[in-house]
Each structure stands twice: as C-alpha cells, then as structure tokens.
Amino acid sequence: MTFARRFDPQWTTELHSLRECLSLLLGQLEAAEGRRRNRSHAARVDFANCVEAVVLDLYRANQADPELEVGIAAGTNTLEATGISRYGASFISARAFQGALAGLQNAGLVFRSTGFWHDRSGANNRTSRYKATEGLVQMLEAAGAFPGALQRRASSEGIILKDAEKKRVEYGNVHFADQARERLASINGMLRDHWIDLALTDQELARWRSTSRGERDEEASQPFDFAARTLHRVFNNSDWQQGGRFYGAWWISAPKEVRRYVLIDGKRTVEVDYSGLHAAMLFAQARLPVPADPYARCLADPANDSERDLVKVTFNALLNADGIYRVKPLEGFDGSSKDWLDYKLNIVSQFPEFGDHFGSGVGLKLQYKDSELAERVLLKFAEEGYACLPVHDSFLVH
C-alpha cells in the first residue's frame, strides 16, 4: 500500500555546498535541453527555483520516509493558479515548472512512482506521485544535504484561512492576519534557533515510521519529517475567530508515545498541558468552579487512562460537530458495554451545564481561544530565549 502527501514548493537552503550542487545541476539540465535560445534572466530564475523546489521537497520526503510519495499536480491551469495564489509560490509558471519536472525525470533523478487517476465523478481523482531516485539522494548528500539544511522560504504564507469545506480562502490585507503573521515570525525564529530530534536508534525510528504511515491532510507534517520545524496557523469557516491552531512541525503529528523521546538541542524534554482545557473553558465562561478533572463525572474507573482518553475525545468531538448524531464512533470505542448512541448521550447527560454547546460547533471557537493562549506561551519563551514546542494545547520544554 502506497501513501503520499501533497507537493510543497516552499523549501530552500542556505547551505553553501548544497547551493553549489543545485547550481551545477541547473547547468546540466539546461545543457541537456539543447535549446536554440537561452531563457531570459527572469525565466531562468523561475526555472532554477522550480528545480530547487522539486529537488528539495522530494529529498525531504525521502528523508521523512523512503516509502513516501509526493503528489504533484502539473497541469497548466493548476500551476498557473498556484503561481498567483497567496498560498502558492510566485516563481511557479506552467512552462518553468513543467520544464523542471521533465528535465529531472529525463536526467534520472526523479521518477513518477504512481500514475494519475481520473474519476469522472471527481470524487476519487488522484494526481501523479513522484519520488527522488537513489542517485538524486546520493548526489545531495555528497554535497552535505541533511534535513536541518532545509528551511521554508520567507515568502511562504503562515496565516491560512479556510472555508466551511476546508478549502483555502484567498484574502487581501487583513489587520489581524498581518499582526498574527508578525508574531508567528518571532515564534518561528525561536524554533529555527534550536534543533529538535528524537532519542531513538535508526531501527527504532524505522519501526515507528512503519506504524505511523498513512495519508495526511495538508495541515499535518509527516511525523518524522525533521526538516519541518516551523509553524503555520489555520483559521476555519472563513472566520478569524474560529480555529487558529498551530500546525506544520513534525512533532505535532508524532504519536504521543514517541513525543516522550523528543530532544531539544540534545537535552531531554517533558510535555506539559492544561488538563481538560475546553471543558475548563466552558466552566469558566459559565462562572462555575472548574473541577480538577472535568471528565471525572463520566468515568467508571478514574485510574483508567484509556477510558478517560475516549471520554475526552468524544466530549470534544461533540463540541466540534454541528449535531450530536453526526459524531461517528471514534477509535477506542469497542461497544462492549453500550452502543455508540447511548455512550454519546450519557456524556451529554453528565454535563447539563453545557447542553446548548454539544452539537453546536463551539469547539472551533474554543480552539481559537486556546490558540491565542498557546501563542502567548510561545512568545514568552521566545522573549526569554528558551525553546518551547507546541502540540495544540500542550507544550514540550526542557
């Protein structure tokens, strides 16, 4: 079974030896084209940037997991739209990108691992998927490449707005977004100043990779994509006060069991969080005392972590949904003691204070508040010169 992620053109490098390698590669690709007329300076810059984008993103995928494929939509209309989008890359044009991708394939450095699939209904379309060849990986590593040598382009958009269908919304000059972008730059500057790794052997890492494979949405990085160590924020439902959480860094997608092995600059870390945060927020908003464990009233055995985790995710799913009956059975529910509907309704009945909130979609508004809280925590650490890694409503620190 293959698995893939979308192409991300926003990667570059400042490593001198790697830049020299990319420059030599560009010359080789241009010589192989046999063009009668050279590109204009501007066209050559765009072509070079497209070559760099494909090479570095496929290398990044290979380093995250050699089995990972990258879906690249190379149709003319798609590429032209990407070039003018707030979320795209201005150097991308159909001619430059298609030429770069074809040149790398002809040179035996990139190959199409899975072909495209067109579904007439449009429900199951699949873009062509690509991988770096072993030759490309060896060439880059001979030039000193490693995940830490890669970084996101400064021009990449870090404040993302999505509509109710989770499609990205193009927006103009928004004062809130401008301020959030400035604060995000400070946070990402803090993260770039530190190296985040795992205290795992290569064999242990390979084992975790094999258990963590799967398709991921564009908000999530691959769990072991060590190049992805900066953040972006995603707001939902075309509303700057819904969502807003931080995504993009590899440790956010890593399994909870793996995060205990996270190192910052070679030093061990601990994960700290706010217990029952959204439930606590609702109690506070209603001016009610906040219980030490807001979920305790639903637990048959307070010492059973698995039971508590299921209550927690179900509670939050009921807040996020636009209807109680829309919430489908979640992972961890086995149905041995009661059916799913009874399980959900029991949780709702245990919180009569929040009867109006379940099935209301209020969860995204609470996420906005916890994202603002997380932003304050991260800015405080950045101001004091310490590293702090967010995992939504928890934080990894020394």
Helical content class: 40-55%
Question: First CA to last CA: what distance?
Answer: 38 Å
Q: Topology as H/E string?
A: EEHHEHHEEHEEHEHEEHHEEEHHHHEE
* Global outline: elongated
Our estimate of the beta-strand percent is 5-15%
Count every beta strand, where a strand is a DSSP E run of 2 or more residues. 15
Instruction: List low-confidence stretches.
Output: none
Question: Largest beta sheet: what is the strand line-up?
Answer: 1-3-5-4
- Residue-averaged pLDDT: 93
Q: How would you describe this structure to a colleague?
A:
This protein is of the alpha+beta class and 398 residues long. It has 13 helices and 15 strands. The protein has helices at residues 16-33, 41-64, 76-84, 94-106, 134-142, 175-192, 202-211, 250-253, 256-259, 277-285, 305-320, 340-350, 363-384, and strands at residues 3-6, 11-13, 68-71, 110-114, 129-132, 150-152, 159-161, 196-198, 232-235, 243-247, 262-264, 267-268, 270-273, 389-391, 394-397. The strands form 5 sheets. Strands 1-3-5-4 form a 4-stranded mixed β-sheet. A 3-stranded mixed β-sheet has the order 7-9-10. The model has no long low-confidence stretch (mean pLDDT 93).
